[in-house]
């Protein structure tokens, strides 16, 4: 794919903004890593060697019986008994004193004089998922230590694991909502601006009424009727978010519909839909693109607010807003507040820097010497 | 006597992406006290940039070298405070576009008063008296009642007069006029030029006049500098340059005038398009119930007929309804009254049913910068019509596009480039190619040459005549430029405020205009004389 000269110039301008480029890199690496969060923070091992056979618990379901246990349910890999069974190749003695058995097998390769089929587990760097409740000594929330690098929250879940998953959830949520609201908003704005007149007048009034609907109440009411989940929340946010872009796109289309190239296309006999999307939209994109950053950061903020208020995603899901709420409720555990603050500050700053670079790159008057 | 303005070795470049693009190279000229110097050149020759640089009004990306001495003071590199004192006080500017040069939210009194308060510390009644004096001087009738008017309430000519009044407010020594009449009608242009010459004489100012129009230069200037691609190629007194041009470029500019007459039309040529008593009235609605209180009569009772191979010229000042009439015939705006295309009534046809018929009627617009979508390549633009209509040509679209571009004088190898990479004249050729590729019967040409340089105009007129000869096209040619109309048209329709005031054979109208309005238009266009007797 070759870039048009205009886009090539924009790309050059963007690359000249060092801060934006660095932010893009850092954000890209962080988001890329968080996409593989299951391999970084998980309560199941990535790979298990049991009696010479390889198992991949991160993807597959294995009942405990596969590893010589008793239960038909999924093996609880974090339990010492299960770990012992895997390491020792399924010795019965694991049910009595797993720690001793494990250490002896690891040291000597045998147990009680008998050779065993030694196995191993490959754990992710953080052996907890966002909803893993770990056994900690003392009361939750517990302070950062070697096991929990950022401590635990008040239900003894690892904060670092929750932040990694929460970051991914926030960004994914924001991107999905932004994409959907943009599509709807651009389509609605395009129709209004292009046809103008009564279409425009009626739509504008509808949008005014729609925009004055109290979004929060609707979300609370819906949440009271249907259990909230990710896609429902996406749907609700899109339902009330699509009006944001309409004004910008409508204005661009109102301006462009009287341009001579649009008239020329009409004189050629080109249909309305084709004119809108082939002739007007590409020229309305600059204003739209410069508006998108506000929607992305706004959506991240909105999700955090809803979670903070307790009307967002269920509390089991990894949410930065919920972490902030816990920080407020547990002032004796400052690591919660610091983690939440630093995560938000880093995420939003990086996004703002990137979008600032994009906006400048699209500015035709900006010259870079 | 030392000159008022002395420019030496002026070099200006624009910096973008670290690359300097030169705009002006080693330019030098003098403006003496009480003298009018004209800088002439085609677009892109650097004439406006030269003028703006004298008071450092260029954008930050400009790199200026050389020397500009105004009244003994070096202006290049001078502190901003000194420059501000000179600008608007000793040196005043008039720009091309009178609508955008005035703040639409301020009244005339406020705009003029601002400058007086700033530079002369005049306020209240003293300022008001001075404003009335100025408005009177620039020929605004009934100045008192105009004080509280907003720019949109004035006509284009009046706005330009207000701009001149603003420029004169502080009694400048040097007035720089950057294409002050280009956006105006010919009759108004003549009046403004007369006003400027008159004011210059009375106030004893010097005038630096920037224009592309040699006719204006001959009328107003004492000395001329001819600019080409950032350099002054020839300079000298007006009479000398016009009578005995030395440089080939100057000769080319002087000879660039659309001449000749169109080929005669075959007597049995069929009628392509015709209207009878066509009306375009825009209703003015009032009140809650949208009661129609009156009409803006944009076109009032227009009857015309164009035959194959024939050109009908429509002339008139801006606002006379020329373009509205053309758009109505193209069915791009709604109208009343029958319109027939090749013997078929098209006035009642729904827009969807009309689309196939659009193949036979095409339009070329005035602004070659605005009529091509900036995000499409030339090949996409020209081929767009082929995707919609069947021209009976089975060859691949790219081949047809290449042929059409060759016919209109564009290198087909450049068809994958974007419009901004082409010059104004080339873009107009692309717009013509877009219209012609469908093999239409009727082409509406809405001021196709007005935005172009004189030399390019001549080429476009040649191209249009050539295409007409080869394909037997019917043209509806709209222009305010009577010279071009004379070179193109068989018949002429003269419009004034929506009415057709005169219509007939071109030769007859040009040689013996019947109405005073037409006579005034002719006088302004060919002699740059303001006809005060004719109320225009």
Put the structure in a nutshell:
Chain A is mainly α and 369 residues long. Chain A folds into two domains: 241 residues, Orthogonal Bundle (MetI-like fold), CATH 1.10.3720.10; 76 residues, no CATH class.
How much strand of chain B? 25-35%
Q: Mean pLDDT score of chain B, rounded?
A: 84
Estimate percent helicity of chain A.
55-70%
Sequence stretches where pLDDT stays below 50 over 5 or more residues of chain A? none
Distance between the termini of chain A: 28 Å
What CATH architecture of the largest domain in chain A would you give? Orthogonal Bundle
Distance between the termini of chain B: 43 Å
Keywords (chain B): ATP-binding, Cell inner membrane, Cell membrane, Hydrolase, Membrane, Nucleotide-binding, Translocase, Transport
Enzyme class (chain B): hydrolase
Subcellular location (chain B): Cell inner membrane
InterPro entries (chain B): AAA+_ATPase (IPR003593), ABC_Ni/Peptide_Import (IPR050388), ABC_transporter-like_ATP-bd (IPR003439), ABC_transporter-like_CS (IPR017871), Oligopep_ABC_C (IPR013563), P-loop_NTPase (IPR027417)
Structural descriptors:
heterodimer, A: mainly alpha, MetI-like fold, three-stranded antiparallel β-sheet, two-stranded antiparallel sheet, 14 helices, B: 536 residues, alpha/beta, Rossmann fold, six-stranded mixed β-sheet, globular, Oligopep_ABC_C (chain B), cell membrane (chain B), membrane (chain B)
Characterization of this structure:
The complex is a heterodimer of chains A (369) and B (536). In chain A, 62% of the residues lie in helices and 4% in strands. Chain A is mostly helical and 369 residues long. Chain A folds into 2 domains: 5-37 and 159-366, MetI-like fold, CATH 1.10.3720.10; 47-122, no CATH class. In chain A, the strands form 2 sheets. A 3-stranded antiparallel beta sheet of chain A has the order 2-1-5, covered by helices on one side. In chain A, strands 3-4 form a two-stranded antiparallel ribbon. The longest helix of chain A is centred in the C-terminal third of the chain and has 38 residues, at 272-309. The longest helix of chain B is centred in the middle third of the chain and has 18 residues, at 186-203. The radius of gyration of chain B is 25 Å and the shape is globular. In chain B, helix 5 (124-137) packs across helix 7 and helix 8 (186-203) packs across helix 20. Chain B starts with a strand and ends in a 9-residue tail after the last helix. Chain B has a domain at 271-527: 3-Layer(aba) Sandwich (Rossmann fold), CATH 3.40.50.300. In chain B, strand 9 (223-228) and strand 10 form a beta hairpin. Chain B is an alpha/beta fold and 536 residues long. The chains are: A mainly alpha (369), B alpha/beta (536). At the A-B interface, helix 1, helix 11 and helix 12 of A face strand 16 and helix 14 of B. Chain B: Its EC number is 3.6.3.-. Chain B: Pfam families: ABC_tran, oligo_HPY. Chain B: This is Glutathione import ATP-binding protein GsiA.
């Amino acid at each position: 794919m070759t870039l048009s000269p205009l886009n090539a110039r924009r790309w050059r301008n963007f690359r000249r903004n060092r801060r934006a480029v660095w932010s893009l890199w850092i954000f890209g690496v962080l988001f890329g890593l968080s996409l593989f969060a299951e391999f970084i923070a998980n309560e199941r091992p990535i790979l298990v060697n049991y009696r010479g056979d390889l198992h991949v618990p991160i993807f597959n379901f294995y009942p405990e019986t596969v590893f010589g246990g008793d239960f038909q349910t999924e093996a609880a890999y974090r339990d010492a008994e299960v770990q012992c069974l895997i390491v020792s190749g399924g010795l019965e003695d694991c049910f009595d004193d797993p720690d001793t058995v494990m250490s002896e097998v690891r040291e000597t390769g045998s147990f009680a004089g008998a050779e065993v089929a030694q196995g191993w587990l490959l754990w992710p760097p953080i052996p907890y998922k966002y909803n893993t409740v770990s056994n900690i000594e003392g009361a939750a929330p517990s302070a950062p230590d070697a096991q929990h690098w950022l401590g635990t929250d008040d239900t003894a879940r690892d904060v670092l694991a929750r932040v990694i998953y929460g970051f991914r959830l926030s960004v994914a949520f924001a991107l999905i909502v932004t994409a959907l609201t943009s599509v709807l908003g651009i389509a609605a704005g395009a129709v209004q601006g292009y046809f103008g007149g009564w279409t425009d007048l009626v739509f504008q009034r509808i949008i005014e009424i729609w925009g004055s609907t109290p979004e929060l109440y609707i979300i609370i009411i819906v949440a009271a009727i249907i259990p909230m989940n990710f896609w429902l929340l996406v749907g609700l946010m899109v339902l009330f978010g699509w009006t944001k872009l309409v004004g910008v796109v409508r204005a661009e289309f109102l301006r462009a519909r009287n341009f001579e190239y649009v008239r020329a296309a009409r004189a050629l006999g080109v249909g309305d839909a084709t004119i809108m999307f082939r002739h007007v939209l590409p020229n309305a994109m600059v204003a739209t693109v410069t508006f998108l950053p506000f929607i992305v950061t706004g959506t991240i903020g909105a999700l955090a607010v809803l979670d903070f208020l307790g009307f967002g995603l269920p509390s089991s899901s990894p949410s930065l807003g919920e972490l902030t709420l816990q920080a407020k409720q547990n002032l004796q555990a400052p690591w919660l507040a610091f983690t939440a603050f630093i995560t938000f500050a880093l995420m939003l700053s990086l996004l703002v820097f990137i979008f600032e670079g994009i906006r400048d790159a699209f500015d035709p008057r900006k010259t870079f010497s | 006597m030392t000159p008022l303005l002395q420019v030496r070795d002026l070099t200006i470049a624009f910096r973008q992406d670290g690359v300097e693009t030169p705009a002006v190279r080693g330019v030098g000229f003098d403006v003496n006290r009480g003298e009018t110097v004209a800088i002439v050149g085609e677009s892109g020759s650097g004439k406006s940039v030269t003028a703006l640089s004298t008071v450092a009004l260029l954008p930050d990306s400009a790199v200026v070298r050389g020397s500009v001495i105004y009244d003994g003071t070096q202006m290049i590199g001078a502190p901003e405070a000194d420059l501000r004192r000179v600008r608007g006080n000793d040196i005043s500017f008039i720009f091309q576009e009178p609508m955008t040069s005035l703040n639409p939210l301020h009244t005339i009194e406020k705009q003029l008063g601002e400058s007086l308060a700033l530079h002369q510390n005049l306020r209240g009644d003293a300022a008001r008296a001075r404003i009335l004096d100025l408005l009177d001087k620039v020929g605004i009738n009934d100045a008192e009642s105009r004080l509280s008017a907003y720019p949109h309430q004035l006509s284009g000519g009046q706005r330009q007069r207000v701009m001149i009044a603003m420029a004169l407010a502080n009694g400048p020594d040097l007035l720089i006029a950057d294409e002050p009449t280009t956006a105006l009608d010919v009759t108004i242009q003549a009046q403004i030029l007369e006003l400027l010459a008159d004011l210059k004489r009375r106030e004893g100012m010097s005038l630096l006049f920037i224009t592309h129009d040699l006719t204006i230069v001959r009328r107003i200037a004492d000395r001329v500098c001819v600019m080409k691609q950032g350099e002054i190629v020839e300079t000298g007194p007006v009479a000398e340059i016009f009578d005995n041009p030395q440089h080939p470029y100057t000769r080319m500019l002087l000879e660039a005038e659309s001449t000749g007459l169109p080929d005669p039309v075959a007597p049995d040529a069929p009628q392509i398009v015709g209207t009878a008593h066509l009306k375009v009235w825009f209703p003015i609605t009032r009140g809650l119930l949208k009661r129609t209180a009156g009409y803006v009569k944009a076109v009032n009772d227009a009857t015309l007929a164009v035959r194959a191979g024939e050109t009908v010229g429509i002339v008139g000042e801006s606002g006379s309804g020329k373009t509205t009439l053309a758009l109505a015939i193209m069915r791009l705006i709604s109208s009343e009254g029958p319109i027939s295309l090749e013997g078929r009534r098209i006035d009642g046809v729904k827009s969807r049913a009309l689309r196939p018929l659009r193949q036979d009627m095409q339009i070329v617009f005035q602004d070659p910068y605005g009529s091509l979508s900036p995000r499409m390549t030339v090949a996409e633009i020209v081929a767009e019509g082929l995707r919609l209509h069947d021209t009976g040509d089975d060859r691949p679209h790219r081949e047809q596009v290449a042929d059409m571009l060759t016919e209109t004088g564009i290198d087909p190898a450049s068809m994958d480039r974007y419009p901004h990479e082409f010059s104004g004249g080339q873009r107009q050729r692309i717009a013509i190619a877009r219209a012609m590729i469908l093999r239409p019967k009727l082409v509406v040409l809405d001021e196709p040459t007005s935005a172009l340089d004189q030399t390019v105009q001549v080429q476009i007129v040649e191209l249009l005549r050539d295409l007409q000869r080869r394909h037997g096209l019917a043209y509806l040619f709209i222009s305010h430029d009577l010279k071009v109309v004379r070179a193109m048209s068989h018949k002429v329709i003269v419009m004034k405020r929506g009415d057709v005031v005169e219509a007939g054979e071109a030769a007859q109208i040009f040689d013996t205009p019947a109405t005073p309005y037409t006579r005034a238009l002719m006088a302004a266009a060919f002699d740059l004389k303001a006809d005060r007797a004719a109320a225009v």
